[in-house]
From TrEMBL, chain A:
Highest taxon above the source species: Eukaryota
Membrane topology type: Multi-pass membrane protein
Keywords, in A-Z order: Endoplasmic reticulum, Membrane, Transmembrane, Transmembrane helix
Protein name as it appears in the record: ER membrane protein complex subunit 6
Lineage, uppermost ranks: Eukaryota, Viridiplantae, Streptophyta, Embryophyta, Tracheophyta
Chief localisation class: endoplasmic reticulum
A Pfam family of this chain: EMC6
Transmembrane segments: 34-55, 61-81, 93-113
Cellular component aspect of the GO annotation: EMC complex
The keyword DNA-binding appears for this protein: no
Family: Belongs to the EMC6 family.
GO biological process: autophagosome assembly; protein folding in endoplasmic reticulum
TrEMBL record, chain B:
Record's subunit section: Component of the ER membrane protein complex (EMC).
Matching PANTHER family: ER MEMBRANE PROTEIN COMPLEX SUBUNIT 5, PTHR21181
Name of the protein this chain belongs to: Membrane magnesium transporter
InterPro entries registered for this protein in UniProt: MMgT
Organism expressing this protein natively: Liquidambar formosana
Transmembrane segments: 42-61
Predominant location: endoplasmic reticulum
Length: 119, 106
């Protein structure tokens, strides 16, 4: 006996006449958490690689953008290319953990560079 | 999740090994008094392999994506409970126009 739009924690309510898209906000949040963990881990790994390779300056950031682009493609592939059944807009998959990942990247980049090249 | 975790740890170990070989390579360069232009080719190959393994682990370990549509297959909340004594069917819901095929699932 499923009524209209009865789910645990709905994002928005839907009326019969104009059907607003409903989605379950808790599932969206869990998907966002998955993206966040993936991006953070890969920023750290990217930072370590940039440090080992001895990049200084702009080249390192180019590596970061490259790693983030490949991560975005990987996440879209993980969502089996039907992004709208797991997220409400494309920006979440592509842009979400970008800036916080940048901080972790720079931290581990300088860390690895110091360990490998200076000490 | 276990396999992804092991693959991730393996990738990190490969990166650590690559870092160690780069440190030794730099030591060697210091002895020969040359400039460090880039790590040797096998270190670069090792880094790429470690990156590939970590990327695979980062995409599979954190968990699956859950569908956010309330009417997709895995989100169905319709199921017949074991106790039918308290279920009534003579309510106002019969006035709603039936929109979709309700599938029963035990």
């Amino acid at each position: 006996m499923a009524g209209n739009g009865v789910s645990g924690a709905s994002g928005k309510k839907s009326s019969d006449m104009n059907d607003l898209p409903t989605f379950s906000a808790e599932k969206l949040q869990s998907n966002m958490k998955v993206i966040y963990y993936s991006r953070t881990f890969l920023s750290i790994i990217g930072g370590v690689i940039a440090g080992i390779l001895g990049f200084t300056g702009l080249t390192g950031f180019i590596l970061y953008f490259l790693v983030m682009a490949v991560t975005s493609v990987g996440l879209i592939a993980k969502a089996r290319f039907s992004v709208h059944s797991y997220f409400d807009c494309w920006n979440r998959v592509i842009l979400d953990g970008f800036v916080s990942g940048l901080m972790s990247f720079v931290l581990f980049w300088t860390f690895a560079y110091d360990i490998v090249h200076i000490f | 999740m276990g396999l992804g975790f092991v693959v991730g740890v393996f990738g990190v170990l490969i990166l650590a090994h690559a870092a160690y070989s780069t440190i030794q390579y730099r030591g060697l360069l210091k002895i020969m008094e040359e400039e460090f232009s880039g790590p040797p080719m096998n270190v670069v190959a090792e880094l790429l392999l470690g990156l590939a393994l970590c990327m695979w682990a980062a995409l599979t370990v954190p968990g699956k994506f859950l569908s956010i549509h309330p009417d997709s297959e895995e989100n169905r909340i319709v199921s017949l409970p074991a106790n039918l004594d308290f279920m009534i069917f003579n309510h106002r819901g019969k006035l709603f126009p039936p929109e979709m095929n309700l599938k029963l699932k035990y």
